[in-house]
Design goal:
The chain is built from nine helices and 17 strands. With 391 residues, it is α+β, with helices and mostly antiparallel strands. The strands form four sheets. Strands 10-6-8-7-17-15-14 form a seven-stranded antiparallel β-sheet. Helix 3 packs antiparallel against helix 6 (212-247), helix 4 (114-130) packs antiparallel against helix 6 and helix 5 packs antiparallel against helix 6. The protein is globular and about 65 Å long. Its cofactor is Mn(2+). It catalyses: a 3'-end 3'-phospho-ribonucleotide-RNA + a 5'-end dephospho-ribonucleoside-RNA + GTP = a ribonucleotidyl-ribonucleotide-RNA + GMP + diphosphate.
């Protein structure tokens, strides 16, 4: 741990100057208490640093929560082991690509599935109780439940250190969560301008507890967080069904273990004797004994962990590897042949579209996990055998 200022603590051994300065600026906001915690995978983000944990009293900065509200991971441990898997993994990858719409604007063409309908009914009821209409933000929000998106979102089949097979995926609240976030970021910025509130950066605009604007944001943010959780459940159901068909199972895949956790979200928690709004922007809850998931980059290991309850980290841990190269820089720097080398032995769609996701564009995940040694205990190390991504 590195004490950068009394209000900024860092667990990152790899930290760019621009990232440090951005986090330092966030930590100067007058309602931050007791300090901002920077995770080992911290890197530059919109307004606030990705990989930061921001506790606030009486206010929330919507941009510090992020635009993919509720983004996170789900993992399921099956009862299968590597030796029981068919040799040809391409049919499984292609089946998953058919079952789960992948791209940024993809729509779910199977909303009539029973489990999809039940989840949509649940979300509709939650929105009614929260007093808002999701369609005001995204007209086709129902059609994106059960869709992956692009960028660093993925679906994987992995094996752990005992060769047990896990299904693993990463996604969030899709277009509707993004639109909700953008709408409230704009409201916060308009209020700052209206009330002549000086800000070190416009994306640190905040909403004040006790106002209608704050209440509306919290209600809609919580809805989007639940949307993200159900979106991952929906996709996992489909992935598990395709996996069962591929291995020749006669029924559903038995789930020996299941973990579903956010890493872009806000919740009320108690830290250092005060009730705070804790925004984890690219960080997981790592309270003592809590299961969590920390993915590596495309082609590298991922980790199943339990939290150590580190008080200074605000019971938090990293959410992944963290970028070292921007997407445009990665495309200029790396080649398709280098991507093929990095993905050797893994079934994936061989395309230039994934160049910006090459492992070398990210911080080394083993370094991140070394930095996180006092934040989490590693339970399982997962190695990919199948990777699915959206363009």
């Amino acid at each position: 741990m590195d004490t950068i200022t009394p209000t900024l603590l860092s667990w990152a051994s790899i930290l760019e100057d621009s990232t440090r300065e951005q986090a330092r600026t966030t930590a100067t906001m007058p309602f931050v208490f007791p300090h901002v915690a920077l995770m080992p995978d911290a890197h530059l983000g919109l307004g606030a640093t990705v990989g930061s944990v921001i506790p606030t009293l009486g206010a929330i900065m919507p941009a510090a929560v992020g635009v993919d509200i509720g983004c996170g991971m789900i993992a399921v441990r099956t009862t299968y082991v590597r030796d029981e898997l068919p040799t040809d993994r391409r049919p499984l990858r292609e089946a998953i690509e058919r079952a789960v719409p992948l791209s940024a604007g993809a729509a779910n063409r199977s909303v009539e599935r029973e489990h999809t309908r039940a989840r949509l009914q649940e979300l509709t009821g939650l929105a009614e109780r929260a007093g808002f209409e999701p369609g005001d933000h995204a007209a086709r929000w129902e059609l994106q439940l059960g869709t992956l998106g692009s960028g660093n979102h993925f679906i994987e089949v992995t094996v752990d250190e005992e060769d047990r097979v896990w299904l693993f995926l990463h996604s969030g609240s899709r277009g509707v969560g993004n639109r909700i976030a953008q709408a409230h970021i704009k409201v916060a910025q308009q209020l700052a301008e209206q009330w002549w509130i000086p800000l070190p950066h416009k994306d640190l605009a905040y909403l004040v507890e006790g106002t209608d604007e704050f209440d509306a944001y919290v209600a809609q943010m919580r809805w989007a967080q639940h949307y993200a959780l159900l979106n991952r459940e929906e996709m996992m159901d489909r992935v598990a069904a395709e996996f069962a068909a591929w291995v020749g199972a006669t029924g559903d895949v038995e789930r020996a273990e299941e973990i579903n956790c956010h890493h872009n979200y806000t919740e009320q928690e108690r830290h250092f004797g005060r009730q705070v709004w804790l925004s984890r922007k690219g960080a997981i809850n790592a309270e003592a004994g809590r299961p969590g998931l920390i993915p590596g980059s495309m082609g590298t290991a991922s980790y199943v962990v339990t939290g150590r309850g580190n008080r200074l980290s605000l019971h938090s841990a990293p959410h992944g590897a963290g970028r070292e190269y921007s997407r445009s820089a990665a495309r200029r720097t790396f080649t398709r042949e280098q991507l093929r080398e990095a993905m050797a032995g893994i079934e994936y769609r061989d395309t230039d579209a994934f160049l910006d996701e090459i492992p070398a564009a990210y911080k080394p995940i083993d370094r991140v996990m070394e930095d996180a040694a006092d934040l989490v205990e590693v339970q399982h190390v997962l190695r990919q055998v199948v990777n699915v991504k959206g363009d």
